[in-house]
């Protein structure tokens, strides 16, 4: 006799079978929805010319469909989200950055060639000497626009200047763009013209008007007092070039530099991205205005990361050794106080130190002036600024080293110290012969990770010094306290040209340096990768 489901009266095994069946269909429906959404993203990015993002989501959607539909790949379903996240948030940005480093991508080379051409063709200019003064007159609850004046002549193919024009009554409450015809008028409408403040209030209406003069060009608002013929500046030609009507010159597209250029070599912005090969990398090494600051920042980056690891390790190790001293009372209190800096968010501590090191009102200079009569220029002297960075970063990093060293020291068998005491060994002997040799090997991978972190410690530089003081003579924004990562950020987002290609080349070099150094240090320390 079967045990039945209380609500539906079905056998228990059949109810379980239906539940599993519905669960499978629900899972398949979810996977199908995700695949359709990803394919929609592929189409959207492709239509917008973003082929790299289209390719990313195509690979992601295809792999999702394959992994979750083939039974032979069932074991890979559990790790797929992690692999997909690695590809989207790590591998793809890295490949995208490397790709940009081989282009001239920048704020002046941002759009596609088609969009650049369309933008140039949309530019207009005001015909010289063809401005009409205008005034607004009330016509009941509406207004009329009256145009007069100018210095046009009949051979301009425009209406004569001596003749005035007036529009039909216009509704001030309708600022939508529209085309309005002009009628010849010997005199202005009856009444006084509206004062300037009411003209300004009606500016939305006036800017949306396109006035059609009899046998003449279209007139548009060219200022608070004038309407003028606004003509298309560029004319497209069959060979792909553009003719500049205003300056009477021809613009030719140059696919090597990504700009339209004139006969005399002038580049017309904006441009479009093109491949430049290794130009960004060779510029770093051959341009003296970039090579000098880059090498200076390169050396300081290594020194900053190495000295930070050294100082934090020394401070953390000494404090951890003191906390293991048997005669020390209140260890729990000291341990809590020493780890407190680790619990405070780094950006808060950095901003507090920035105020403390203030050259005019900071507590550090007040104490130094009281005791020694000096007021160091922490933010204007390059060496003092670097010293300040090391002091602050040591304070931020020593609790991490303290925790590591405490854990490793406590794992050392006490028998070794007792045997050392029997042989007459003291604290210094124990330090050099037992403690350091036993903790350095397991500590090495963590020291390498700390070096890599400080190699790219952008937050500290951005919040404390901003890279200042500047390096004189540099053609790019570069400071004596900049690290390579902050130098890259300033080139990409703070420089007037926003040279993303050059910044991407430096970012690629940073990645290769960090990856190479990490691999070398791991091999030298004989730690299995």
From TrEMBL:
Please identify the protein, giving its name as recorded: Maltose/maltodextrin transport system permease protein
Q: Cell inner membrane as a keyword?
A: yes
Which Pfam family, any one of them, does this sequence belong to?
BPD_transp_1
* Keywords attached to this entry: Cell inner membrane, Cell membrane, Membrane, Sugar transport, Transmembrane, Transmembrane helix, Transport
Membrane-spanning parts: 25-45, 51-69, 78-102, 297-320, 332-353, 388-409, 443-464, 500-522
Domain ABC transmembrane type-1, residue spans: 298-521
Where does the UniProt annotation locate this protein? Cell inner membrane; Cell membrane
| Assigned protein family | Belongs to the binding-protein-dependent transport system permease family. MalFG subfamily.
Task: State what this protein does.
Answer: Part of the ABC transporter complex MalEFGK involved in maltose/maltodextrin import. Probably responsible for the translocation of the substrate across the membrane.
Q: How does it sit in the membrane?
A: Multi-pass membrane protein
Gene source species: Billgrantia campisalis
Q: How does it assemble?
A: The complex is composed of two ATP-binding proteins (MalK), two transmembrane proteins (MalG and MalF) and a solute-binding protein (MalE).
The protein's gene is named: malF
């Amino acid at each position: 006799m079967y045990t039945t489901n209380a609500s539906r009266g079905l056998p228990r095994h059949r109810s379980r079978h239906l539940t599993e069946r519905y669960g499978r269909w629900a899972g398949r429906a979810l996977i199908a929805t995700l695949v359709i959404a990803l394919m929609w993203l592929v189409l959207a990015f492709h239509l917008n010319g973003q082929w790299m993002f289209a390719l990313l989501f195509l690979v992601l959607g295809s792999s999702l469909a394959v992994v979750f539909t083939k039974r032979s790949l069932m074991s890979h379903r559990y790790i797929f989200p992690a692999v997909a996240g690695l590809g989207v948030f790590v591998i793809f940005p890295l490949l995208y950055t490397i790709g940009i480093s081989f282009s001239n991508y920048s704020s002046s080379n941002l759009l596609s060639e088609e969009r650049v051409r369309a933008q140039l063709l949309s530019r207009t200019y005001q015909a010289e000497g063809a401005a009409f003064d205008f005034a607004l007159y009330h016509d009941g609850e509406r207004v009329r626009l009256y145009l007069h004046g100018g210095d046009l002549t009949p051979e301009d193919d425009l209406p004569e200047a001596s003749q005035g024009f007036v529009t039909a009554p216009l509704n001030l409450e309708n600022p939508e763009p529209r085309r309005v015809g002009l009628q010849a008028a010997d005199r202005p409408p009856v009444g006084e013209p509206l004062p300037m403040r009411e003209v300004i209030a009606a500016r939305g209406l006036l800017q949306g008007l396109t006035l059609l003069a009899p046998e003449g060009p279209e007139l548009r608002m060219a200022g608070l007092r004038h309407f003028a013929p606004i003509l298309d500046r560029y004319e497209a030609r069959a060979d792909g070039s553009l003719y500049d009507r205003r300056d009477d010159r021809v613009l030719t597209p140059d696919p090597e530099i990504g700009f339209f250029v004139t006969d005399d070599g002038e580049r017309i912005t904006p441009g479009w991205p093109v491949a430049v090969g290794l130009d960004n990398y060779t510029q770093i090494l051959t341009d003296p205005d970039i090579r000098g600051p880059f090498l200076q920042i390169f050396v300081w980056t290594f020194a900053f990361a190495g000295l930070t690891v050294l100082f934090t390790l020394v401070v953390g190790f000494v404090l951890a050794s003191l906390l293991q001293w048997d005669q020390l009372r209140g260890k729990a209190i000291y341990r809590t106080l020493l780890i407190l800096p680790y619990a405070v968010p780094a950006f808060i501590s950095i901003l507090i130190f920035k105020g403390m090191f203030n050259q005019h009102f900071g507590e550090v200079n007040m104490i130094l002036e009281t005791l020694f009569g000096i007021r160091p220029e922490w933010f204007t002297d390059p060496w003092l600024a670097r010293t300040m960075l090391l002091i602050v970063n040591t304070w931020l990093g020593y609790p991490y080293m303290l925790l590591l060293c405490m854990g490793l020291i406590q794992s050392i068998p006490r028998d070794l110290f007792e045997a050392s005491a029997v042989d007459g060994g003291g604290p210094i002997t124990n330090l050099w012969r037992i403690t350091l040799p036993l903790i350095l090997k397991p500590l090495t991978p963590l020291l390498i990770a700390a070096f890599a972190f400080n190699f790219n410690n952008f937050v500290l530089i951005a919040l404390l010094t901003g890279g200042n003081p500047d390096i004189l003579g540099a053609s790019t924004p570069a400071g004596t306290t900049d690290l390579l990562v902050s130098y890259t950020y300033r080139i990409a987002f703070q420089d007037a040209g926003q040279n993303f290609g050059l910044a991407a080349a430096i970012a690629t070099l940073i990645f290769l340096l960090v990856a190479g150094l990490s691999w070398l240090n791991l091999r030298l320390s004989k730690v299995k990768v």
